[in-house]
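Field reference: "sequence" (input) and "structure" (output). Example, DNA polymerase eta:
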Amino acid sequence: MPVAKRETSDGRVIAHVDMDCFYVQVEQRKQPNLRGLPTAVIQYNSFKGGALIAVSYEARNFGVKRSMRGDEAKDVCPQIHLVQVPVARGKADLNSYRNAGSEVVSILSKKGRCERASIDEVYLDLTDAAETMLLEMPPEAREDIEEEVLKSHVLGLEIKEGSDAKEEVRKWIRRGDATYQDKLLACGAFIVANLRMQVLKDTEFTCSAGIAHNKMLAKLASGMNKPAQQTVVPQSSVGGLLESLPIKKMKQLGGKLGSSLQSDLGCKTVGDLLQFSEEKLQQCYGINTGTWLWNIARGINGEEVEGRLLPKSHGSGKTFPGPQALKTLASVQHWLNELCEELSERLQSDLNQNKRIAHTLTLHARAYKKGESDSLRKFPSKSCPLRYGTTKIQEDALTLFQAALREFLGFCNSKTHGNENNNWGVTSLSVSASKIVPIPSGTHSIVKYFGGQVPSSSSFNQPLGNAFDEAVPSSPSGSENCSGLISYELQQNYPEGDTEIKNSEACLHEQDPLCNLSRKVDSSLKESSLESPAGSEHRTTKSEPYRDLPAKDHRPLSSTPSLKAVEKKKTAGNNLKGNYSIMDFFNNYQNSQSSLEHKNVTNAHDVKTASSFGLPSTMDSYSTCNQIEQPAERCREEIDSNVGECSVPNMSQRRQAWDYNIDEIDHSVIEELPPEIQQEFQAWLRPHKRPNVPNSKRGSSITHYFLPDKSR
């Protein structure tokens, strides 16, 4: 419902810029030979030559209208040129028109706050620019006025028969008794005329504009004089404009509300609303809507121009009229896949170019039920959290449709007879992504908190979307696991054949002690398993791994005597291709700790016991390890003694492992973890509120959670 907002000031200068038959202009720029000829853009289908979506003014002079089909347009204007919209995935591809609209927006946004309302229309708040111009060069002081400004239409300006319209406009602009508001509008006329000329010069597109004190009046004025013209609405002419304006022509009154005003109150024009008091309108339509109706009858609209150059949502849809209606679930799924693929591409492009993510996926449809004429338009819309990725969006969209279909059939008092029934038909399908917001600052991949450093995009040579796979919203069911995310990220950065490179470079930072430790232990394990008898392999992997490994082992892998063992290692390496998981980080860490248990002075049980007396726990020390320098250094020495010389030579700096910054933690990632791990994360963030968890209970610690299950 419309929202009533008071005017913050009657001295605003708002412009609405509307492109002239924009789709036709885009096609004429591609094919200059079409300029000046009757042209129309069609969305082709087999039914009567397709639907017209844009008609040039030359074709309109012959009587061609947008409501016609292609064949009908040819009957009215045989010389008309019909240009088909590009097709992709079986539907119209509007990307070329969106890109052309972005060219226009980039020019218009230079002079004030800009709101992109659609592909071909923009709102501008020019108040600041007009006030500056009024101070520097008032309209009445201007001698030379551009031709385009003099061509402006000023509502309420009487032009006598035989007089020069441009001269009358000049007098209106330079009159000395003009109000402050009218002087601002005159300045706005100069600014908009210059912008329109700049758009024409840079893009070859013409546009029309309305200039008024609010968005509602500017929108009405922009369509009054087309093409390539502008209209100014002084405050004194508002009453005359609205008095004769049909109710259905007013924005937000073209639907049920406008029909109710016509049938219930007998209002044919907006001016007819003046006879009703605000209380009467509130009584009929509620407090908010009643006040809004009372305001628009007087030309009052306090809606602000939003500073938005990018769309608030992305959508993809297609209609299936008449016999083309979708009557099986398989056909619906096919088109949902096509629509979701397009939507996913646009979302990924928005993410890469504008660093924005969408949070909500919505499915809309129109359907009918045979034998029930009132079922049309009652197909419910469904929404869910949006998961990035074409396959995920397709799966969720199908789930939403199935839920809506069950509700639709139940609403129509009908039972479902399986998916392939002929009792229903879908005449329209669309999917949209909304709640699009910029990516929060400090958002990083989950790998940061386990690897210690976020890889830069330049080092991985991957698109922005991959770097933010973990920052976007996930499934509401939480079915996404960390191993899938990391394996995908690693697979994107290494060619398939480079298995050895993958195994050696999988760690995120060359100077990470844990990285070097896990790399060394992995290679030692493989060497040990190659040299052991066949029957001992099971014991190596199932019982206590690495317990019997030597502290230092400088034997190169190339010293393995058996060629068969080398071939076996190569096969094992190929089997590991692409199977990286977050669990590898924890397993390597735990395995390294098991080899140091007999040397550590304090074990996890002792630290947890100490924490019950108010001392910091082991988990708490991950964020404050610098405060206890001795144990940290001792632990580092123990690690170095086990891994030998596997670290980078001449490494001058070492990082503390498992450190993190609370401000950089993405809580949406934490919410996807199992409940017991979520509790421990929360304890890390709020140490003073950490509960006492029994040490003997498996799963009470994040490290215990990733330990191998000895019961199997």
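The first strand starts at residue 14 and ends at 19.
The first helix runs from residue 22 to 30.
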